Amino acid sequence: MGIHKRYWVIAVGLAAMALFLAPAAFSQNCALCYTQAASAGNRVIQALRSGILLLIIPPMFMSVGITILAYRKRNQFRSDEYPDE
Predict the structure, then answer these.
(1) Which ranges of the chain have pLDDT less than 50?
(2) How do residues 3-23 score in pLDDT, each as one tens digit?
(3) Residues 45, 69: one domain?
(4) Which pTM value belongs to this model?
(5) How many domains does the chain have?
(6) Any domain includes 60
(7) What is the pLDDT of residue 2?
(8) Which domain range does residue 69 map to?
């Protein structure tokens, strides 16, 4: 089995696990948090939604930025097998 095929199999396996385990992650709710949010008014519910967005967006942009930097610098430390003479 080639190394590229092995990476492909691992990637498909991880994607399948993420897909099948997602419902289990969404079902983990705290009963106290749920009842407090359900009994709150519209302003509190909107504040919760805004807070969730504020907690998600900055790490997402940081992850994208780090990925772009890593992609641009990917060949910086790679040694050449056959250096130009």
Answers:
(1) none
(2) 778 888 889 988 888 777 766
(3) yes
(4) 0.45
(5) 2
(6) yes
(7) 67
(8) 40-75
HSE-CB at 61 with a 13 A cutoff on CA atoms is 5
CA angle 13, 63, 17 (to 5 degrees): 15
Cβ distance 37 to 48 under 8 Å?
yes
pLDDT score of 34? 74
| Matching residue, tokens 């997402």 | 60
End-to-end CA distance of the chain: 35
CA–CA gap between residue 32 and residue 16 (Å, rounded): 32
Residues 1 and 26 occupy one common structural domain: yes
Sign, CA dihedral 48-52-53-58, equals positive
Q: Report d(CA 22, CA 72) in Å as an integer.
A: 32
Rounded CA Rg of the chain: 22
